[in-house]
Fold these 2 entries.
Entry 1:
Amino acid sequence: MSPLTGLDGRTAVITGAASGIGRATARLFADAGAVVVVADLDAEGAEQTVAEIEKEGGTALAVVGDLSDSTVIARLVAVTDGRFGGTDILVNNAGVTDSKTPPARVGDEEWERVVRISLTAPFLLTRAMLPHMLRQQRGVVINIASEAGLRGGVGGIAYTAAKHGAVGMTIGVAEAGQIASVALFLASDAADNVNGAVIPVDGGRAAL
């Protein structure tokens, strides 16, 4: 049983959900009552995530494709809208690291690939799904960044720049929060790894 519930009737699109953090997030959200759309380039892994969710009594659907391709994003939005009426929760988790090459030797292809997948794709997905959220006056966008998005990291310049960009994008589209909801989260087992953190719950004013 999930330590938090309350996602009944919500549709969550989770990218990079064929494995790792994405799969764990997809299973947890489904356990909390959400319908989950598993978006990933790895078809076998995506279908495995769906199978695990369905085995536990949840509802899930795999959409396979390269999320750095705008046509794949359009298909993902169309499928989600057609099957479930739109996206209530978007978790931008998919990303790639780089070769950790020194900045002077980073090639254009590597830079563009990492930034396209780790930053541009989350922006395109967010832009595509925000209209539905704004119409219903409810929605959540969660961007999974990295410690490299807060400081320098061993991931290399492309990865670090992309993750800093993801943090900035998150601030740029911040929505209002409710203090009681955050307090509930912090009091729950889901917040076991949150310790000594300062969390602004100010309706987005800290983002201005």
Note: The longest helix spans residues 108-136.
Entry 2:
Amino acid sequence: MDKELLDDVTAVDDAELARSLKEVWHVNRYMGGNPALFRHIRQFMRQAPKHRAVRVLDVATGLADVSLALTEWSRRQVIPVEITGVDIHPRILRLAAERTAHVESIRIEHGDGRALAYPDGAFDIGFCNLALHHFVEDDAVLVLQELSRVCRLGWVVTDLERHPAAYAAAKLLAKLVWRSPVTRHDGPLSVRRAFTAGEAAQLIARANVKGNVKRHFPFRLALVGHE
């Protein structure tokens, strides 16, 4: 299958990279991705310790948009958080660091979701948003295992669900809405590379971790891991 342009950011300049990632964020915010993710994160937040800040890991953070949104939500709820956002691409990391420089509760670090450089149970909660389809199956299994290892309470992996209607919608967005050539190329391809609910359940089984798959409207999957 074709490769997404965001998987090889050397072919994209910083301005186009940032524009594409922002378009992805807007789709995620207004078309069901964020509600699905936050629904499950908030459930884990209720179980988090009350005597200290909740330690959160954001794998494949991108522009750290979800971390920023979670920080704002936590501020309103008076729940202190310490968020570590990791990404494997140095240029994306630089953009994320610039975007979060004013937020003390977020730190950005280089990291590979398949081999996280943190000890067991280093975090309370972990999440990975809209990135699982970038991994081949064997690597996706490693991501789930690593999240389970480093997150004490649980983790959430949200992504697109592969479905003909979702692909048609992405093609329409690419034609009428998205302006970045990167998003126009990657959007429909992301749906083609995404997993079905059954395939996602098989990933959890292969990873040998405790978890289940939740489907959310429209065409979103949430893999939720727990103790």
Note: The helical segments are 14-30, 33-45, 65-77, 90-99, 137-150, 164-176, 181-193, 197-207.
